[in-house]
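Subject: design request, 214 residues
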């Protein structure tokens, strides 16, 4: 595939939520942005105001859609935001709303299996890591293949970004995470020849000076 037919992807994690700050598992629970998250989304929109973008996609959960809408509201020439449930965070079922510490105390065996990143481990009522990985990659591939030679803005969640980073760099699902997944950071991928390539990761320069309100 030539460079002209490859798909450029701006991959964004949503802005901060109060559950992010409290280290509570969100999953499919629909949590909106915190005041800091709203400011992050505005800074992101300013940073991307001159970026070439042909289509805008987000998870259908509020925290991702709000982050994307900060840009589409600022740039009315862009096509309408398209929400895609395939871009959702991993479903954590009974773990949603709990902190990592609470899960470790209440379900130590499950917590250990989760910590080991077992691909077939499924939280009660949730989604296995293997299924989530396949969903994340197939969704991004579907969007990329539908827009050859175009530039996409995709706003999703930390878990989805983690899956895409692994796919683009050849990291296994079980490899310990050593890369950042900042809220409202800018990440760049290229989709060509059926695969993802990493171009840039976790650019947070536009967020300098922002801090949670006391």
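Subject: RE: design request

Done. Sequence follows.
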């Amino acid at each position: 595939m030539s460079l002209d037919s490859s798909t450029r992807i701006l991959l964004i994690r949503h802005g901060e939520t109060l559950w992010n700050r409290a280290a509570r598992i969100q999953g499919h629970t629909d949590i909106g942005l915190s005041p800091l998250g709203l400011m992050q989304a505005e800074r992101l929109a300013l940073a991307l105001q001159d970026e070439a973008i042909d289509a805008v996609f987000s998870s259908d959960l509020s925290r991702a859609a709000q982050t994307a809408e900060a840009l589409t509201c600022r740039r009315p020439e862009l096509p309408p935001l398209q929400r895609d449930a395939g871009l959702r965070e991993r479903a954590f079922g009974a773990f949603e709303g709990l902190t990592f510490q609470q899960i470790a105390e209440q379900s130590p065996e499950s917590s250990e299996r989760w910590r080991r990143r077992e691909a077939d481990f499924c939280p009660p009522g949730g989604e296995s890591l293997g299924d989530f990985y396949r969903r994340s990659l197939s969704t991004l591939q579907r969007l990329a293949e539908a827009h050859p030679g175009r530039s996409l803005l995709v706003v999703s969640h930390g878990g989805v970004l983690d899956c895409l980073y692994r796919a683009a760099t050849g990291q296994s699902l079980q490899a310990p995470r050593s890369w950042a997944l900042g809220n409202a950071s800018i990440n760049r991928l290229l989709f060509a020849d059926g695969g993802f390539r990493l171009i840039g990761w976790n650019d947070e320069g536009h967020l300098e000076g922002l801090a949670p309100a006391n």
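The domain at 3-204 is CATH 3.40.50.1240 (Rossmann fold).
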